[in-house]
Amino acid sequence: MTAAVVKLTANDVEIATRAAENFTRIYYKAYDSNNRLNDLPQFYRQSSSLVWNGKPFQGATGIRELLEKMPVTKHDIQSFDCHPIPGTSPPSLLVSVSGSVTHGQGPSGNPAHTAPRTPEGHPRVFHQTFMLVPDSNTPATKPGELAKYYVSADAIRFVG
């Protein structure tokens, strides 16, 4: 049996690029906000998975547990790329994001006894990859609005 070939269209690529740009902006704004414990888990479902530097977390509850132990953050996004995955309309999206993140208040916010080479408070380069899936339970609410997506899988690694 031969699988049907699903070709991506220029419209698929345009939708993917716009969706990824919007997602990246909104996601990291939520991540760095004072309300992140409530906002960030809304990007995930209970079936979602996150691997944070090799440590697995499951669903929105797992994301919340991770965030509860994490100091405040400030992300500086350097680049992102998006690849639509054929097979659904709108397509699922593979989104790769690179940048740096500072955990805590920055070097000046660390206690005086903090070792100078500790990663806390210093920017760290990261790479994060998301698999975004169209959310059929949350339809577009306005004409021309992009599909709603949720994070099905998420993997983040510090690079340096």
How large, in whole angstroms, is the Cα Rg?
Answer: 18 Å
E-strand count: 6
Percentage of residues in strands: 35-45%
| Regions with little confidence, pLDDT below 50 for 5+ residues | none
Number of helices: 3
Distance between the termini: 46 Å
Shape: globular
Q: Strand sequence of the main sheet, in spatial order? A: 2-1-6-5-4-3
Order of helices and strands: HHEEHEEEE
Mean pLDDT across the residues is: 85
Helix fraction, binned, reads 10-25%
Largest sheet descriptor: 6 strands, mixed
Class derived from helix and strand content: alpha+beta
Question: How would you characterize this protein structure?
Answer:
The protein is globular and about 55 Å long. The chain is 22% helix and 37% strand. It has helices spanning 10-31, 36-39, 59-68, and strands at 44-52, 55-58, 73-85, 92-103, 124-134, 149-158. The mean pLDDT is 85. It is built from three helices and six strands. The chain is an alpha+beta fold. Strands 2-1-6-5-4-3 form a six-stranded mixed β-sheet, covered by helices on one side.
Furnish the topology, listing elements before pairings:
Elements: H1 10-31, H2 36-39, E1 44-52, E2 55-58, H3 59-68, E3 73-85, E4 92-103, E5 124-134, E6 149-158
Parallel strand pairs: 1-6
Antiparallel strand pairs: 1-2, 3-4, 4-5, 5-6
Q: Would you kindly provide a brief summary of this structure?
A:
The chain is an alpha+beta fold and 160 residues long.
Provide key terms for this protein.
22% helix; six-stranded mixed sheet; alpha+beta; globular; 3 helices; 160 residues; 6 strands
